[in-house]
Specification:
The protein has 336 residues and is α+β, with helices and mostly antiparallel strands. Helices cover 39% and strands 18% of the residues. Among the domains are: 149 residues, no CATH class; 86 residues, no CATH class.
Length: 336
């Protein structure tokens, strides 16, 4: 083959290659647009309906009727104003921005799920209340510019799983490992798939010492009263010990002689601010005192606030924090 013919075939080959590359590149923008459109369509399909009790148009911020416990009155306010008050009541307003954002998304989801499931508060003519036994803490006095910004930056965002509002449980400090709903709350329904045992970075030096390791002592008489409230008609007991444990290491039950009771329910009956968790290392009877020694603070289910604090300090976003503690969930925007 002559040099001239070799050059001709080389030019033809190069032209074919360039034509293939050109056609491929021309298709890529459409393909990328198609992928993004499919993602948007999927997200729209997974977006839950606005709770009927709110009587709000889709895509518009609703108003909430909130029973203010301290005022003994129902006040109507924009949804995002309520969220700001919850964030002020549930997390420190000088924490890293992304941790505050994560709390805002969780707070917003919590009340949407609450209203979607229950319809209204136990207090008449209100959607929700500031009663922490019913819903979330609420403190408008703690709301500062950092909280306002976090709420505004996450405006309308909620957490969903398969098109439904997620159960967005949270707590102060998981003690290194989060709990399933059964472990931490004695949850009676099936454990949600996105609530799992998650290693939690609860090792910040800023965590109060009495949250890392704590001891709680209760008079025997108080424990007997708590047991009776839980339907156990014990008049006395001579021994106490940890019964069954869950995968996170938390006590599922506490044994009094031969009687076992739910550890999460006993914690609430005795006082959850004193018996700080069910992540127990030791339980003993010392004279007329029942002594609990444990780690962490709170039920341990869902997001650890101190874990979120540490992750935010390490540069993680609010979305990354949420999807770490609630695997396989999505965040959707309900209103602009």
């Amino acid at each position: 083959m002559t040099d001239k013919r070799k050059l001709l075939w080389a030019n033809i080959f190069l032209s074919v290659i360039l034509l293939i590359v050109s056609c491929t590149a021309a298709r890529r923008p459409d393909q990328r647009r198609g992928t993004r459109e499919e993602q948007r369509t999927q997200q729209e399909a997974e977006k839950p309906a606005m709770p009927k009790a709110l009587q709000a148009a889709e895509g518009r911020e609703p108003n909430l009727k909130v029973y203010i416990v301290e005022e003994d009155t129902v006040r109507e306010m924009p949804f995002e104003e309520y969220v700001a008050g919850v964030v002020g009541g549930e997390i420190k307003n000088d924490w890293p921005e992304e941790a505050i954002k994560a709390q805002a998304i969780i707070a917003r989801t919590f009340v949407m799920q609450f209203i979607d499931e229950k319809g209204q508060s136990k207090y008449q003519n209100a959607h929700v209340s500031t009663d922490i036994e019913e819903a979330q803490a609420w403190n408008m006095e703690a709301v500062n510019d950092r909280i306002r910004k976090a709420v505004n930056d996450t405006r309308g965002q909620v957490i969903v799983y398969e098109g439904k509002y997620a159960n967005t449980w949270f707590h102060s400090n998981a003690g290194g490992m989060t709990a399933t709903a059964k472990e931490g709350l004695n949850y009676k329904e099936a454990n949600p798939p996105y609530i799992q045992n998650i290693p939690s970075p609860d090792d910040s030096p800023e965590i109060p010492a009495d949250e890392k390791n704590w001891t709680a002592k209760f008079p025997k008489a108080k424990v007997i009263m708590a047991l009776q409230k839980l339907g156990q008609p014990l008049q006395n007991f001579s021994s106490v010990s940890i019964g069954k444990k869950g995968a996170s290491g938390r006590a599922l039950t506490i044994r009094f002689d031969d009687t076992e009771v739910s550890a999460p329910e006993l914690r609430i009956a005795l006082g959850s601010m004193e018996m700080k968790s069910t992540l127990l290392d030791e339980v003993s009877l010392e004279g007329n005192q029942v002594v609990f020694k444990g780690r962490g603070y709170g039920h341990g289910v869902g997001m650890s606030q101190w874990g979120a604090y540490q992750m935010a300090k390490e540069g993680k976003s609010a979305e990354e924090i949420i999807k770490y503690y609630f695997p396989d969930v999505e965040i959707v925007k309900m209103w602009n």
